[in-house]
Amino acid sequence: MKHNVLLVEPTIKPNGVKILTDQSNVFMAPDGKPETLIRCINEHQCEAICTRVEQMTAEVIGACPTLKVIGQHGIGLDNIDLPAATAHQVKVLNVPDSSHITVAEHAFTFVLACSRSLKINDKSVRDNTWATKDQRQTHDVMGKTLLIVGLGRIGRALAVRAQAFDMEVIAYDTYVPSGVGTQIGVEMIDNLEEALGRADFVSLHTPLTPETKGMFSDAQFEAMKDSAYFINCGRGPVCDEKALIKALQEHKIAGAGLDCLEQEPPEADNPLFRFDNVLFTPHIAGNTIEASMRCSEILATTVLKALDGEETYNWVNKF
To answer: d(Cα 290, Cα 4) in Å, to the nearest integer?
Structure first.
């Protein structure tokens, strides 16, 4: 007998939908509101749901007795109440390995764009001011130091790319043994402020947890060089946005590249928009066509395996 799986509009890529449709009964929720999810899961007796940004709270999980698997389209799990899922024996799957290179490429794009003042220089052409090299400072990345905060899959992929541009790479990660860094030529530093003082670029790649929320605040920006750039392609709330704004206002740092913010989408009057040395992208670092297709295929395949009782490599709350 086929399993019942709920998707949420807008949903995963068509290749993943096809895999699920071919091997299960697929139902579509019109939106991700909690009441909609509860109604659709119970109405169709769904055993699995594939989520993207939908909030799988304790209330939703507890109200859906047929639910056995939550499949998250991506690596981040801050939209899912893991303790509640575990308490209700609901397996939570993510996709940790479809977009790490994609995110690393995006982070390095910010490194290059910041070093060449790309936003300001683009504007100078459009405004017909034509700011030349005598009016605008730009920099090589060769010989500069990149600090990677969080040396997981993404951090390691970023290190390889930075080294290809002859950058010195250092890293801070309290969960990764120093030997991991040694294997790829990265110096591990166990004091964050010390590492920040050496870096010309700081790239943040930590998950959002109670421990990491707000970990980048006044003290961390104070420790950075005033010529250094801050890059965040992880989660917005890991950085205290007020502290970042203050650091920019007081010229404590040279600029920033931000793929994520504390509030998404941000308010139109967000003070960060006032700075021409800050680059933004709308939380798309991991969302190339290729990465999304890989993610959808892996998610659909592993959700079906989990429903059949197989132990999948991406089961994050094992019980």
So the answer is: 27
